[in-house]
Amino acid sequence: MNIFKEKAKEFASKGFNKLPDSANLFLRYMTGVGGENLDLDDKTIKALRESTKQPSLEERRSFFENRGPLRPDFMVAPDFASIAASRDSARRFSTLDNARMNFSRRGPVFMTPPPPRFRSIMNPSSRLEASNYPKSGAVDPYMGGFEGADKVQTTLGRFMSKVNPSLDTVNISDTYDMINEMEDPDLVSGKIQPIKAFKELFGRGHMRGDVYGGGPKGFATRAARSLMYGLPIKPKSYPVNIDIPFSGDINNKEIYN
């Protein structure tokens, strides 16, 4: 019987590896296959390595705290009506000087020069930049800003990294599950929740407590989460531990521990 189970797991694992990485990891979580014979796409592995080069949350917090808060009196809302009225607005708006920097369609625009302590943030040469090499520590990819950020966000999410100089690798370690401070505990409880399943499917995702959020944007993601609410299955978390080459092409050189 055990031999049959192992063969079934091996067969399922090979099949999951042919799917997109997000589905591969998720189905291993739902079926109990776990990390057995896991093989992620080279693009995902490269994106994971790239995410370890990004500034940590502590570095980001320190960077902004040392430069002081943004004062509202230095900002006014942009006049988008007049901007849209000009055929040449896109070109002109993109060439405004640093004192009129646009943050987003709903964000503020500087109309007067910013204070000196904030000016460095607007100067690309003094921004908080990514490292040229992987770093050890907690990695949070949800700030984005690097190639393949979406792949990391939809596969491992947050994880730990550790540089191994003697092996010329960076180790990626994580426990794959859907348990965090913002997630609804019922999602992984194994209890059938038909109302939550319905709301999740139609974009009314249930977050921790009684607060409903907008739900994940992708229909496939919403459908998968809806299924979790609708099935009497308690997913089984599993470890993911990968040694990735410190630099250079991946070419299936990563090692799954």
Protein architecture, described:
The protein contains ten helices and seven strands. Helix content is 35%, strand content 12%. It has a domain of 63 residues. The protein is globular and about 50 Å long. α9 runs antiparallel to α10. A five-stranded antiparallel beta sheet has the order 3-4-5-6-7, covered by helices on one side. About 26% of the residues have low confidence. By secondary structure, the protein is of the alpha+beta class.
Fold topology:
Layout: H1 2-16, H2 21-31, H3 42-51, H4 57-65, E1 75-76, H5 80-85, H6 89-94, E2 109-110, H7 116-122, E3 137-139, H8 149-153, E4 159-164, E5 169-176, H9 194-201, H10 219-230, E6 238-245, E7 255-256
Antiparallel strand pairs: 1-2, 3-4, 4-5, 5-6, 6-7
Helix pairs in contact: 9-10
Strand order of the largest sheet: 3-4-5-6-7
**Low-pLDDT segments, ≥5 res:** 69-126, 208-216
| Gyration radius, rounded | 23 Å
For the largest beta-sheet, the strand count, sense and barrel status come to: 5 strands, antiparallel
Fraction of residues in H or I helices: 25-40%
What is the molecular shape? Answer: globular
**Cα-to-Cα separation, first versus last residue:** 26 Å
